[in-house]
Amino acid sequence: MLFIAGFVFIYYTIWALLLPFLSSDSPVQSLFPAREWAIKLPLLILLSGISAVGLFFARVMLSEARKKAVKGGKKV
């Protein structure tokens, strides 16, 4: 896992920070997607993660509310 994290960090750093300084006809440019994805991809991952955490908290809160309602005799 540490190797994969290190590889992703180095790849993204080269892609986002160092690639603009290379000429567009460099063979290194073909190893990376378009630069617009250097922003879009992390944003999509961040939004997916925040949504997953929010849905998890909502599910836990609803199940706790149902348990309290059953315990108190109410219906939720």
From TrEMBL:
Chain segments annotated as transmembrane: 7-23, 43-62
Pfam families: DPM2
Record's keyword terms, sorted: Endoplasmic reticulum, Membrane, Transmembrane, Transmembrane helix
Membrane topology listed for this record: Multi-pass membrane protein
InterPro entries (alphabetical): DPM2
Family: Belongs to the DPM2 family.
Function (record text): Regulatory subunit of the dolichol-phosphate mannose (DPM) synthase complex; essential for the ER localization.
UniProt-recorded name of the protein: Dolichol phosphate-mannose biosynthesis regulatory protein
Lineage, highest ranks first: Eukaryota, Fungi, Dikarya, Basidiomycota, Agaricomycotina
